Amino acid sequence: MKNFQFNGPFAEYIKNHIHLKQAVGYKYETEAKHLLRFSSFTAEKYPEALSLSKEIVFEWCSKKSYEAQANQCARSSILRQLAMYMVNIGIDAYVLPKGYYPAAKQYVPYIYTENELQRFFQQTDQCCHVGECPYRHLIMPIFFRMIYACGLRSSEARLLKIEDVDMDAGILSIYHSKKDNSRLVAISDDLSDRCRTYSEKVHSFSKKSDWFFPGLNEKPMTVVNIYRNFRRFLWKAGISHGGRGKGPRVKDFRHTYACHCLKKWVIEGKDIAAYLPVLKTYMGHYSFEETAYYLRLTADIFPDISIKLEGCYPDIIPKLEGGYDETN
User: Fold this and answer.
1) Using CA of residue 267, residue 271, residue 276, residue 282, what is the dihedral sign?
2) Which residue among 72, 88, 104 closes a domain?
3) Which residue numbers delimit the Tyr recombinase domain (predicted)?
């Protein structure tokens, strides 16, 4: 955990709560930042508070004029977790009822067609060299192909070190991903060759501990950099974007990978019940339910295989509500 200086009457509880979350495998970094702001809020407005009262909870959780519904729900959930922790250790705290604030409409992943993927990757191949980011034209074709071809989270690809990419064995080593999980991801021969060519051009004098996809000032590529390039490639490929919160999004390459795998297995007559655990492990899912979500999504996106999926696996196909999109 970063050296946050928590203030206010609940500082010690906040710090211990975060330590506990991280000890059981959660990164809890974004949540810690929210709790840092909450501690400053209570230090300023309720410095003498002896309990986490209903008044404090509702004032903190009230929706800001500039705030999206999803962010309010996230802040409320984080404070609810803190309150539950305090109650469990015998401290008086008001626990906000679960689901008290209405959740924003869940985003249903955008599944790219084969043609859209081809057009998108063609645009990454045409990325030009710019002085401000000298390796951009080399990074983008590999980065986006890797996310799709390996079903990676964007952060998993962005934070790869050179030593994590074994091009001879065709293996990516993913460390400390979601819920602190680590895993090995096999990559195709074609992607290995692309990575090797890329590495020869970019990493001739790099150390093994350097970032595989370097940004500026010896840091990895930023999320903003990735997103801006993504939107530019999307536009040039003629793929419509629905605006803020509508998608397509970068993480939809990962969702597309999962759906395309399932579609391929169904067409080939594979035993999906046997293959789902493989997909779960490959994608780094924490629970089987997260992986089974893609069965419903695949059935809805590809109606031609819907009947076969429903007929063979009616008990493991969840209702499609977008609920697992943010956790996958």
Assistant:
1) negative
2) 88
3) 107-307
